[in-house]
Design goal:
Layout (H helix, E strand, L loop, with lengths): L5 H4 L79 E3 L5 E3 L3 E2 L5 E2 L1 H7 L3 E4 L8 E4 L3 E2 L6 E4 L5 E5 L9 E7 L8 E6 L9 E2 L5 E5 L2 E7 H4 L8 E6 L7 E10 L3 H8 L11 E8 L5 E2 L6 E3 L18 E4 L14 E3 L8 E3 L4 H10 L3 E6 L4 E3 L9 H4 L5 E2 L2 E2 L18 E3 L2 H17 L6 E6 L6 H4 L10 H18 L4 E7 L2 H5 L13 H4 L6 H16 L6 E6 L15 H10 L20 H12 L4 E7 L7 H17 L3 E4 L8 H10 L11 E3 L1 E3 L3 E7 L5 E8 L6 E8 L3 E10 L7 E3 L8 E6 L3 E10 L2
Parallel strand pairs: 17-37, 19-20, 19-32, 20-23, 23-28, 28-29, 29-30, 30-31, 31-32
Antiparallel strand pairs: 1-2, 3-4, 5-16, 6-9, 7-8, 8-16, 9-15, 10-14, 10-16, 11-12, 11-15, 13-14, 17-34, 18-33, 21-22, 24-27, 25-26, 33-35, 35-36, 36-41, 37-40, 38-39, 38-41
Helix pairs in contact: 2-4, 7-9, 9-12, 12-14, 13-15, 15-16
Length: about 800
């Protein structure tokens, strides 16, 4: 995609806690309540729990790349909600700081994470002793040593009540620290209470309410939306065993009514952070180690650079990406001999600029961070001649509809496109030899460093069927079938001779229309699809592959190794931070990933038929040029700051592994600490210590509403699965069957539901030799890190 207006298509754990809804904890004042003595029986209370719950039909529209605000051209994506930002600042699993600001919630309203904290009170009930005004009542044998945690024996359904007459305040959650024998399992429930007939839900303390684990201590946080959904007056907190347990001590400390923490508010605002109603719907997942698998290409976890932010950001190196792509619209006009000189094209007023970043800087940065490089080389024939010229200067072309500092967007005030001047106004010719010299220079520098290759793949330009729009100042005429082929052969041959062992990818087309037709097929004044009909009515990509196969047969020169295309859903879900986050759009965003792989999914856009991109490409390759690999050179599902965007991204990464493609490059890279950032980490570094999806694909199946992607190491004794729950409101009780994998010996579970802190360890569910039962919170990513003993 282009680099310049990514504003138009810019292309924020298990959640620290999964809870129900943003703070609802304002409570009426409980007046005139009298203390009661704890006489060994629990005071009467209700026992019924209440669970809280583009459109791009023509090839003349532009995209963006470098992160500046959209100014000229039209966006490839049809969605356009205002940008979302991730909220708060929190430490992630590896201890680094993730920053974010405000986030939009699923209904599109904005939640400020600090608002709750500033408006709610903090009330200590017990902290090394009873808080001011609080009384100790209940029926369990207990000790409250001064300056130490309270100790309880909760056998025979024992319980503890903390009571304060005339309690006043507005609270977001109940927080406490708990230490209990591991053999007790999940045994505790908590509720509020008051004198009279008012009843409150009994909330079981499950792993979803555990904020963090610190040795033998668990920190628990229960939102008021669960404890007090109706905002009733209360004056006591009841903690009791929900099942009969032993006589060992259970320790409590730091029991407080608190504001809702910013990270929890952030998770909720990102569309996650819900506990869900009840125990969750039952769902079956199967990991089938008896079925054929394959080795997963490590290059599916790729991202692109952002020319404007390359030297400002660092988090792109902490998300686990394995490769980066030098690409986007301006790279079609990049002059490698001038350092950072390229033309911003239709993305930003056709300006020659110096981005302060050279290809050498890019490659060196990738090498430093252990990432491979993919480099786009120009086929368009023209690159920036300097860092100051512009394509449509106002001084020469007159006033224009969009202007920036004397440069225009090439459209008159009445909307008429201006006829461009000579390409030499901004550019110098870039012949195949110009590209070959660049490739030789890159390889020679690799050899001088000892020979280790960093640039593994060269990509033959960027979205050439959009040149007559994106780069119309130098290439105003629509590209044809023959024009694409002749340039591919000329420049591809030059690359092959300069670096015979490199991989060459193309044609890097943007999307649906140009998988099937050329830009000339939509040229004004010509019969629709006339170029395709002149080439046997064969869709563009199959024809392109067939011609390159014939060229190799005749000349012995293999031009193409990798079929590279871009994928942007046309379902009005947005790109980058953009994209509505209402429930309907969120669901459609996640469904739109099915366009990559599902032959039964009819695209919910003007396309209105199954795209099934990866199966389609495999068929075209098999029929026309066997042996080619597949790369998705750009893709994006929008709503970086929302869980629906994160879940779509995790789904895409899983499908890339499933479909055994060679590489994929997210456009460009997600915001720091956002759900999309953590989607990458689910596969690449879920625990902050290098825990990752393994190297071999294991077939797996999930029921509707969930996905499961499984992997194993070479020995088969380690399995890692990423499990997704797409339901924004309801948890799932997943029964994971391990078929032919061996005996399940150990299970580590980490989960994420939108909090900036990322993945946190969760209590593993019940397991047998061949199954694991695990609760999946609503809108969540769960990583199962399993060890098995081979049969």
């Amino acid at each position: 995609m282009e680099d310049g207006v990514k504003g138009s298509r810019r292309k924020a754990g298990a959640a620290v806690l999964t809870c129900a809804l943003v703070v609802g904890g304002t409570m009426a004042v409980a007046q005139g309540l009298q203390a009661q003595d704890g006489t060994g029986a629990e005071p009467m209370a209700s026992v019924s729990p209440k669970a809280a719950g583009k459109a791009k039909k023509a090839s003349g529209e532009a995209k963006s790349t470098a992160g500046t605000t959209a100014a000229s051209g039209e966006a490839k994506s049809t969605a356009g909600a205002s940008a979302e930002k991730a909220s708060g600042e929190a430490k992630n699993a590896s201890g680094t700081t993730e920053t974010s600001g405000e986030v939009k919630n699923a209904s599109g309203t904005t939640a400020a994470s600090g608002a709750t904290a500033s408006s709610a009170a903090l009330e200590a009930l017990y902290d090394g002793g009873l808080g001011t005004g609080w009384k100790d009542i209940g029926w369990a044998p207990r000790e409250l040593p001064r300056g130490a945690p309270a100790r309880m024996r909760l056998f025979n359904y024992g319980g503890w009540i903390l009571y304060r007459p005339k309690l006043e305040g507005s609270f977001g959650a109940l927080s406490l620290r708990l230490s209990a024998p591991e053999s007790y399992g999940e045994f505790l429930e908590v509720r509020l209470d008051a004198q009279g007939s008012t009843s409150f839900p009994r909330i079981p303390i499950t792993s979803e309410l555990q904020v963090r684990k610190d040795g033998e201590w668990s920190e628990i946080l229960i939102p008021m939306e669960l404890l007090n959904p109706r905002g009733e007056a209360f004056d006591r907190v009841v903690l009791r065993a929900s099942k009969d347990v032993g006589r060992d001590w259970v320790l409590f400390d730091k029991v407080s009514l608190v504001p809702l923490p910013p990270e929890v508010a952030a998770a909720l605002a990102a569309g996650g952070g819900r506990t869900g109603k009840g125990s969750g719907r039952e769902t079956k997942l199967t990991i089938d180690c008896t079925a054929p698998g394959h080795r997963i290409s490590p290059l599916i976890y790729g991202i692109a650079m952002d020319g404007l932010r390359e030297k400002k950001d660092q988090h792109q190196y902490r998300m686990g990406a394995t490769t980066r792509r030098w690409g986007g619209n301006p790279t079609s006009r990049y002059n490698w001999k001038l350092g950072g000189a390229w033309n911003t094209a239709n993305d930003w007023f056709f300006q020659n600029v110096d981005i302060g970043l050279s290809y050498e800087d890019f490659i060196a940065s990738n090498r430093k961070h252990g990432m491979m490089s993919a480099v786009t080389v120009p086929l368009i024939g023209w690159v920036a001649k300097d860092t100051t010229s512009v394509g449509f200067p106002v001084s020469k072309f007159g006033p224009q509809r969009g202007e920036d500092n004397g440069s225009g967007n090439g459209v008159t005030r009445d909307g008429t496109p201006l006829k461009p001047g000579a390409p030499s106004q901004t550019s110098t010719e870039a012949s195949p030899e110009f590209v070959a010299e660049w490739v030789r220079t890159i390889r020679e520098r690799d050899l001088a460093r000892g020979g280790e290759r960093n640039v593994r793949m060269y990509i033959l330009d960027n979205e050439p069927m959009l040149w007559n729009s994106t780069h119309r100042d130098v290439f105003p005429e629509p590209l044809t079938y023959d024009g694409l082929l002749s340039r591919t052969i000329a420049y591809g041959t030059a690359v092959r001779k300069a670096d015979p062992e490199a991989l060459i990818a193309g044609p890097a087309e943007w999307g649906w229309t140009n998988y099937l037709w050329s830009a000339a097929d939509f040229a004004p004044g010509k019969a629709p699809h006339s170029d395709r009909r002149a080439h046997g009515d064969v869709p563009l990509l199959p024809w392109y592959l067939r011609q390159l196969r014939e060229h190799e047969k005749k000349t012995g020169v293999r031009i193409l190794d990798v079929v590279d295309v871009h994928f942007y859903p046309q379902t009005n879900v947005g790109v980058g931070l953009e994209g509505n986050t209402d429930p309907e759009t969120n669901a459609r965003r996640i469904r739109s990933t099915r366009g990559l792989w599902d032959p039964t999914y009819k695209d919910e856009s003007w396309i209105a038929e199954p795209v099934r991109l990866l199966p389609r490409l495999k068929e075209w390759i098999a029929q026309n040029y066997p042996g080619r690999s597949i790369s998705i050179g750009e893709y994006n599902f929008g709503a970086f700051g929302h869980m629906s965007g994160g879940l779509a991204q995790a789904e895409a990464l899983g499908r890339f592994a499933q479909e055994n493609i060679y590489s994929a490059y997210f456009w460009q890279y997600p915001t720091n600490g956002s759900p999309v950032f953590w989607a990458f980490r689910a596969f690449r570094d879920f625990d902050g210590r290098g825990g990752h999806f393994q190297d071999y694909w294991v077939p797996a199946k999930a029921e509707e509403g969930t996905s499961v992607f499984a992997s194993r190491d070479e020995s088969g004794t380690k399995l890692v699965a990423v499990v997704l729950n797409f339901d924004p409101d309801q948890a799932a009780q997943a029964r994971v069957e391990l078929k032919g994998c061996g005996t399940l010996e150990g299970a580590r579970v980490l989960g994420y539901s939108g909090a900036p802190g990322g993945f946190l360890e969760q209590t593993a569910g019940s397991k047998t030799a061949g199954t694991l039962t695990q609760r999946l919170p609503p809108y969540s990513m769960t990583v199962l890190d399993l060890t098995v003993k081979k049969p």
